[in-house]
């Protein structure tokens, strides 16, 4: 059956919406303290930096969720920003977010696990080729440069070698599964040791590579307000691990997200800050197995007249909005993602204001 370009784009961003919302909830759950004596910006200063108009500012104070198009650093980057008011103190939000822990069990997430310290194979024992394990195993055994799977040249070679060593026509699901686990462990260890510089590029074919490190660095640099108001957060995003504060609480997870019958393996790094009354939570997807290249999300909570100003910025790098027709794809994609995120934030606000 023929699928139109708009239908295909819509389906693709249903996937991204699901990933973004899952990731955002996990990000919000984990806000934790980091001691840092700095002069905090006012809510007015933050809104001015974001170029929120006086009329939109009034809309926020009146209870509306205001969206804006954050600056995008490339034709692959899709950015969306939102701001709204919650009538409670920032400190009261932490418990509300923790009560959303059940969303970790939402149907899209088939499995997840926390990665400790240097990481061991045991940390990834829960990574399974599911759903449709045999079909996905064939994809890995037949891996080649392109966007069906996000793999480096050495990773492609390893899966091809596994295929060559097997029996004709056999699909060794368990062996492929073990190699996927090793791939995730190796990528985690390289990132934890070297930060962005440790992220291996994705082979795209014809000598082309996609570098998630460049995409994530660009996303961090586009968040200019962080550098201005809370440079400790900006430094941590750009220079990890050398740029992180000594008392930073950070957490690493792997996720298996079922996107239309395909497992998507994600490596997530959360950096969690409480700077005085300001709350900041960052969630970075520094590896994803397909569909998008990387993701950087941040949510901040700042006290203001009448409650807490919530500011969210999400940035996704995806080849699906690049190239020919990029100028048209971006606004369509943001329009598809916006209502889904608004529904999520309305839920957050309702829960918080009941306390």
CATH-derived architecture: 2-Layer Sandwich
Q: Major beta sheet, specifics? A: 8 strands, antiparallel
- CATH C-level class: Alpha Beta
Mean pLDDT: 83
Q: Shape from CA axes?
A: elongated
Secondary-structure element sequence?
Answer: HHHEEHEHHHEEHHHEEEEEH
Beta-strand segment tally: 10
Strand content: 15-25%
CATH topology: Alpha-D-Glucose-1,6-Bisphosphate, Chain A, domain 4
Distance between the termini: 50 Å
CATH superfamily: START domain
Which keywords apply here?
24% strand, alpha+beta, 355 residues, two-stranded antiparallel ribbon, 8-stranded antiparallel sheet
Give your account of this protein's structure:
By secondary structure, this protein is an alpha+beta fold. It has a single domain, classed as 2-Layer Sandwich (Alpha-D-Glucose-1,6-Bisphosphate, Chain A, domain 4). It has 11 helices and 10 strands. The chain has helices at 5-29, 43-49, 54-61, 90-98, 133-141, 153-165, 173-194, 212-222, 224-229, 231-239, 326-353, and strands spanning 66-68, 77-86, 109-115, 202-205, 208-210, 249-259, 262-275, 278-288, 294-304, 307-317. An 8-stranded antiparallel beta sheet has the order 1-2-10-9-8-7-6-3, with helices on both faces. A hairpin with a 2-residue loop joins strand 7 (262-275) and strand 8 (278-288). Helix 1 (5-29) packs parallel to helix 11 and helix 6 (153-165) packs antiparallel against helix 7 (173-194). The longest helix has 28 residues, at 326-353. The N and C termini lie far apart (50 Å).
């Amino acid at each position: 059956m023929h699928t139109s370009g708009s239908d295909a784009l819509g389906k693709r961003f249903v996937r991204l919406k699901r990933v973004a919302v899952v990731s955002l909830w996990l990000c919000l759950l984990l806000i934790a303290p980091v001691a840092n004596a700095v002069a905090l910006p006012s809510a007015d200063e933050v809104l001015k930096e974001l170029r929120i108009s006086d009329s939109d500012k009034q809309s926020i104070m009146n209870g509306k969720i205001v969206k804006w198009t954050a600056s995008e650093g490339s034709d692959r980057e899709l950015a969306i920003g939102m701001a709204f008011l919650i009538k409670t103190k920032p400190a009261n939000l932490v418990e509300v977010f923790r009560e959303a822990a059940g969303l970790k069990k939402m149907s899209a997430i088939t499995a997840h696990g926390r990665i400790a310290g240097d990481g061991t194979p045991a940390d990834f024992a829960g990574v399974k080729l599911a759903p449709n394990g045999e079909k996905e195993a064939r994809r890995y055994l037949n891996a080649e440069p392109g966007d069906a799977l996000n793999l480096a040249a050495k990773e492609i070679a390893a899966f091809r070698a596994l295929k060559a060593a097997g029996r004709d026509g056999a699909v060794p699901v368990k062996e492929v599964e073990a190699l996927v686990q090793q791939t995730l462990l190796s990528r985690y260890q390289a990132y934890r040791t070297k930060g962005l510089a440790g992220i291996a590029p994705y082979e795209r074919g014809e000598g082309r590579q996609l570098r998630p490190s460049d995409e994530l660095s660009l996303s961090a640099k586009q968040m200019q307000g962080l550098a201005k108001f809370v440079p400790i957060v900006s430094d941590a995003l750009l220079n990890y691990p050398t740029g992180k504060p000594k008392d930073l609480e950070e957490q690493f997870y792997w996720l298996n997200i079922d996107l239309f019958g395909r497992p998507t393996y994600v490596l997530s790094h959360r950096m969690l800050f409480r700077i005085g009354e300001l709350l900041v939570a960052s969630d970075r997807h520094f590896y994803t197995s397909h569909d998008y290249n990387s993701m950087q999300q941040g949510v901040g909570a700042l006290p203001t007249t009448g409650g807490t100003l919530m500011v969210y910025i999400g940035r996704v790098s995806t080849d699906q909005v690049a190239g020919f027709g990029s100028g048209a794809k971006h606004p369509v994609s943001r329009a598809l993602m916006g209502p889904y995120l608004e529904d999520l934030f309305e839920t957050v606000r309702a829960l918080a204001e009941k306390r």
